[in-house]
Amino acid sequence: MALNALGSRRTAPVGEEAVSGQAGPQHQQAKTASGADAHPRLILPRGRIMKLLGLSVAVLFLLSLAGQIARYHLGYPTVLGLVDLFYLDEENSVPTWYQSAVFLLAGGLLSIIGLGARSSGAPFASHWLVLATICVGLSLDEVASLHERTIDPIYFSLRPTGIWSPSWVILGMAAVASVALLYLRFFLHLSRADQLQIAAAAIIFVGGSIGVEMMTAAMFDTADVTWKKSFDYVLMVQVEEGLEMVGLLIFVDFLLRRASQTGPIRLAVTDDRAAPTRG
Hints:
The protein is mainly alpha-helical.
């Protein structure tokens, strides 16, 4: 009995599948139904994700503000490099990485929704997928500062002043208006709750990224090379970047809720390389 308990193989009776042989179709179906052979699943719990992202936004906002208080009011301008590392207006920083990652998450969720809509024949599948591409592009812009490369060409072409002095906002407003016009039918086909959440996310995000940027240009002399070296400017940056992060957070919450209503998406990795030939 001890040997059998340790794994000795018993002889399968006639009509029963051998232990070492392949299981029959009925056995395979039973195992799948019981969950023993079920494919591994990646589950995205909406509540936990939103709590994590919300906490991240709060922590990053407070760390950035604390660092600037240390710089301008306490006489500690660097604190071992941590001040710039967590400053919301710094390109090479933790907040920039966070915002880029969340845009990438939004792009992935939009892809899931779009592919689900395409497979089920639902309308506007291509609109979801184009939005996914836009979010991936915005993720790249966060870390590569692509929009800032448009500042000089627009400035030397139009010579904008006042609220238009951060010249990239001209291109930004044109892009926002174009997307709003092209997505009007898509927006109107959504439920009332979806419309309200998307509108809130867009107004908060655009209000921060473009609206506060223009207000800042009106409040400061942008011709002065030191105009960004003040705590008043820091406060405007905190408002601008904080609104951007909150707006994106609301949009991601919408996408998680929408994706939860989409059927399961199966991701399979295949090796399409040609099999090596033997000589």
